């Protein structure tokens, strides 16, 4: 897993959607977790400790077998979390394409209208 700054995370996250990896599908998974500031990696520890007792760890990885899985992570302070989450959501909405709406069966639609 590669720990990067929040500024470096978003471009690398965008690149995950474009990459094709051997032995995997095109899904990208994002996980968030609150952790103590002292447990953050050396790259971001000084900034995290002065920001407060807890930070948000955000991980993203391209699904595939363990040999080819691509993982990145960053730590975001509580003050920066909402702004970062909005940027992350904008990237995800822009990159998710080809999702078809779920089809409702006609049988279920008739059953709900006749029961009233």
TrEMBL record:
Alphabetical GO biological process terms: SRP-dependent cotranslational protein targeting to membrane
Alphabetical list of Pfam families matching this protein: SRP14 (PF02290)
InterPro entries given in the database record: Signal_recog_particle_SRP14, Signal_recog_particle_SRP9/14
Stretches the record annotates as Disordered: 97-116
GO MF terms, alphabetically ordered: 7S RNA binding; endoplasmic reticulum signal peptide binding
Subcellular location: Cytoplasm
Keywords: Cytoplasm, Ribonucleoprotein, RNA-binding, Signal recognition particle
A single cellular component GO annotation: signal recognition particle, endoplasmic reticulum targeting
Primary localization: cytoplasm
Gene3D superfamilies: Signal recognition particle alu RNA binding heterodimer, srp9/1 (3.30.720.10)
Superkingdom of the source species: Eukaryota
Described function: Component of the signal recognition particle (SRP) complex, a ribonucleoprotein complex that mediates the cotranslational targeting of secretory and membrane proteins to the endoplasmic reticulum (ER). SRP9 together with SRP14 and the Alu portion of the SRP RNA, constitutes the elongation arrest domain of SRP. The complex of SRP9 and SRP14 is required for SRP RNA binding.
Family: Belongs to the SRP14 family.
Subunit organization: Heterodimer with SRP9; binds RNA as heterodimer. Component of a signal recognition particle (SRP) complex that consists of a 7SL RNA molecule of 300 nucleotides and six protein subunits: SRP72, SRP68, SRP54, SRP19, SRP14 and SRP9.
Protein's recorded name: Signal recognition particle 14 kDa protein
Organism: Aphanomyces astaci (Crayfish plague agent)
């Amino acid at each position: 897993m590669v720990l990067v700054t929040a500024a470096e995370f978003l471009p690398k996250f965008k690149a995950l959607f474009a990459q094709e990896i051997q032995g995997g599908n095109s899904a990208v998974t994002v996980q968030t977790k609150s952790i103590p500031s002292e447990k953050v990696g050396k790259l971001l520890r000084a900034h995290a400790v002065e920001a407060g007792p807890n930070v948000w760890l955000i991980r993203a990885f391209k699904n595939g077998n363990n040999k080819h899985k691509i993982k990145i992570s960053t730590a975001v302070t509580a003050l920066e979390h909402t702004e970062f989450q909005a940027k992350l959501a904008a990237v995800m909405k822009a990159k998710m394409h080809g999702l078809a709406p779920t089809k409702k069966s006609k049988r279920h639609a008739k059953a709900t209208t006749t029961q009233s």
